[in-house]
Amino acid sequence: MASICRSSGTKATRADDEVYVAAVSLRATRGPAQLLMSTAYSLNLWNFQHFMVIIKPSSPLPSQTQKQAAVVFDFQPQDPENIYVALAALSGNKVPGAILTRKLTKLPKTKCWFIGSCEIDAVEATYKFNQSWQTDLRIGHHDCRDYTNGLVELLTGQKYVLERLRSDRR
Description:
- It contains five helices and seven strands.
- The protein has a seven-stranded antiparallel beta sheet.
- By secondary structure, it is α+β, with helices and mostly antiparallel strands.
């Protein structure tokens, strides 16, 4: 996949969109499953984290207010808290997935890594990427990790960014 941006080896200039990867706890049904996911996240168990791409545009988005600093893009099951969806996904079956977009007022303070900068409109490039993304989710084969790796490769040229981040933590 051809890169349209610059990797983290080069300092971002004022006109560049910044690309980050963040990790959050996996969502689960209330009760023991949710407690297990939160504990795994707290213990930094890499395979029990949900990954997403955050873009901090160099200029405000058309609908952006002063408080909106970044846009999050991620891929997850349509109903991540449904126990039947979770069981189907964990057994290796495809489940309906959804690409989510949210705005942030500030970047996360933990488990958020600067990956690189982008000289073009990274948000627009991501919307185009999302149009071709297959939304059937299959854990370990087509999930948030694959989405994050693919989008980061498009935006920065860095392949397998999650594997690099994982090895850097050791």
